[in-house]
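Why do we bother with holo predictions? Because pocket geometry can differ from the apo form. Keep that in mind while you read this record for adenosine-5'-diphosphate.
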Amino acid sequence: MRLESVSQNCSVERIYSALSSVFGFSEFRPHQEEIVTAILGGRDVFAVMPTGGGKSLCYQLPAYLLDGVCVVVSPLISLMKDQVDAACANGLSAGTLNSTISADERREIGLALRQNRLDLLYISPERFNSDYFIERLKTLKISFFAIDEAHCISEWGHDFRPDYLSLSRIMSEFPDVPVTAFTATATQRVADDIIVRLGLRRPHLTRASFNRPNLFYRVWSKQRLDDQILSYVKSHAGESGIIYRSSRKKVEATAALLQSCGISARHYHAGMTDIDRRNAQEAFSRDECSIIVATIAFGMGIDKSNVRFVVHADLPKNIEGYYQETGRAGRDGELADCLLFFGRGDIVQQLRFINDIEDQNARNIAKEQLWQMVSLAENPSCRRVALLKYFGEIFPESGCGGCDICVNGDERIDATIAAQKALSLIYRTRESFGAVHLSDVLVGANTDKIRQFGHDKLPTYGVGKDQPKNYWRAVINELIAQKIVKVDDLSRPVPKLTEEAWFIIRGKKTFSMLQPSIYEDRKIKSNQFAGNNILAAAVAPFSEPLFAKLKAVRMEIARAMNVPPYIVFSDKTLHEIARYFPRDAGELKLIHGVGQHKYDSYGQRFLEVINEFCNQNPQEAETWRQRNGAATKTPKQMPTLQAASYIETYNMILQGKTINEIAEERKLAKGTIVGHLEKLGELGMEFSAEQFFVPERLEQIKELFKQNGGENMMLKPVVEASNGNVDYEEARIARIFLKKS
Ligand code: ADP
Ligand code: ZN
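The structure, written out:
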C-alpha cells in the first residue's frame, strides 16, 4: 500500500489501517497521530516524549507510508540490530549500514537502497562526517530524516556525544528533506539547544507529559539491604528487572549475592571490557538472565520493553537521573514497579562525592539537586506529583493511585498531640539533638546518652511510651518534611523550631500525618515482602499457566529468529492472549501488538499453543473466556495505573473476601474499598451481587432507591428513609448493582 503522493493519499483511514495491520495497535498513544500527520505533511518535527511513549512508531509509520527511505540516526551501533529486527518483525523493510555487518549484507542493503525498496535505514551519527557517504545519500530518494536520542547533540544534556555535532550538516546538505528529532530529555534548555543546533525550520513541536501512568513508585527505608533486595527479587520471580547501585564494587557484590541464591543475574559497569558488557546486555535483552545489576552506565537506548521493575538500591544523585532510570521500566505499557531504597547514610556518601567536585558552582548545583532528590524520597506526599513538579508539570488529580503514598496513605490522621510532645521536647533539649535521640527520650529508653544529658529527668521523658520508636521517628520526619521544624544539614538533621511549630505547641494549629499503622508497615521484616508485592496483583489478571506456555514458545521463536523475545511479542501481547484466549486468526489479530506480518510469521504457532492448552484445561479456558467476554471485541483497556489499587481489591473480591476483610488486610478504610468497588463497577469489571446481598435484601434497597433516590440515585434520602436499616456503605454497594441493571 505504498503511497505516491502525500497530500492525496495519506487519508486518516490509511494511517489507521497501517497502525492496525502493520503494528497491531488499535489506537495511537498521546501525540503520535499529530506527529505522524506532521511528517506526512512534510514538516520538520521536534518531539519530546518520555521513554516508552512510543517515539519509534512516530517515524516508522510515515516511513512505511511514504515513498523513499527514512534515514534514522541512532547513537548506539550495538542497538541498531535490535531496532532493525523490531521494524522487520512488523514487516517493514529496514537495514543498517555500520561496521558490524558483513560484506554480503552491505551489498544487499546497497541494492535495496538503489532500488528504493527500503523503508528505514539506520545509521550512526559519525557517518555525517564522511563526504563520500553524504554524496551517496544524495543519490537516493530520502523521505525524511529521523534523529533519535536527539539530546546527544546538546552539551547541556546528560549524554552529550561530539559525533552528533556533525548532524548540523544535514540541513545544508539536504535542504529539501524534512528533518525530525526525538528525545526523552526533560529539560527545556536542552530542548531549545537541539532545535538550534539541528537548524529545524519552524518544526511541529510536541512536548508530551512526562507522566508514566503504568509505573508504580515506592520508597522503602533501607535497613538490611541484602535481605530486602533478595526478598523483593523473589517476589518478582521470572520478571525482568534492573537493579542500580552506586559503585562498581557494590554492583558486583549484589550480582554475586543474587547468583549465590540461584537467581539468574548479571552485572554491568563501565569498568568491564566492551565484550563483557555487550554479552551482559544481550543476555538481559534476550531474557537469558532475568536481572541486571548495574551502575548508571547501563541503560541508554535500552529498548527492552518488558522490564518489569527498576530498583535503586542506593540514592540517585538527582531527580532527572532517577526519572530516566526508572523510565526504563514498563515501556510496553504494562504495569511496572520502581522501588527506591532510602537511608540517610546514602546522603553522607553522596555528599562526599560532591565535596570532591572542584568547581564551586558545579558543587552547589550538585548539592541542590541532591536535596531535591532527598525530599522526593522522604516527603510523605504523592511521589508522582513531586516527580512531575520537578519537570514543571502539574499532575491534575489528587491521589495518583500509583505510588506507595497514594495507595497506603489514603488516610491521614490528626497527630497534633504527638507533634506537641515532640516539639516541646525539641524545645526543652535546646534544639540540639537528632531524631534518633529525641525518639529515645520520647519512648523512655535507657541509653547512656540520655543519662549523660540528664534527659531522663525531663517531663517529656517517656511521654510517648504508648508508641514504638519508629512512630516517633516518623512524626519527626514529617515535621521536617512539612517544614514545621527546620534543619540545616539534611544528612544529620537537628530540628529547630519555626513559627509554625509554636502555633502547634500553643494549640493554634493542627498537624496531620499518615496513619501510624502505615509506618509500622514500613518497618522492614524480610518475610513481609511477599505481602507487599502490589505489582503482582495489580496487573489485570490473566491465566498464569497459559502465560508461561506462551513465554516458552516466544523464547523458541526468538532463538530461531535470533532476536530478543520482546521483539516477537511484548509481554503486554502475551498477557492479553492469556486473558482473552483468542481461538482463531480473527480473534488473535484483535490482540494488542498482533499485526498482519507477525500473524503470518508465527500467529499460527501461538494459536496451536492456545488450543492445546484449552484442550488440556477446558475448565480454566472456559472460565477466562467467560470472565472476559472472549476476544470478540477489542479488549477493554483499563487506565492501568489508577487501576492498580482497584485491581488489588478486585482480586480479593474474586477470592470471595468481604469488604471488611479487604479493608483489614489492605489497611484501608471500608469506605475506600467501597469506593474501589464503585470504580470497578464503572469500568465494567464483573463481580456478582450475591457475594454481598441475599436477593431479597437487594430488592428491598432497590425499592428504597426507587422511592427516594431520584434520578441521580442519591444516597442520603435512601439511608434516611430506611430508618437506620441501611447505612451509607451498604447503599453505595447496592447502587453499583442497581446501576448495572
Ligand atoms: P520510546 O522510543 O519512546 O521509548 P518505543 O518506541 O520503544 O518508545 O515504544 C515503547 C513501546 O510502546 C513499544 O513496545 C511499542 O510497541 C509500544 N507502542 C508504541 N506505540 C503504541 C501504540 N500506539 N499502542 C500501543 N503500544 C504502542
Ligand atoms: Zn501518588
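The first strand starts at residue 45 and ends at 48.
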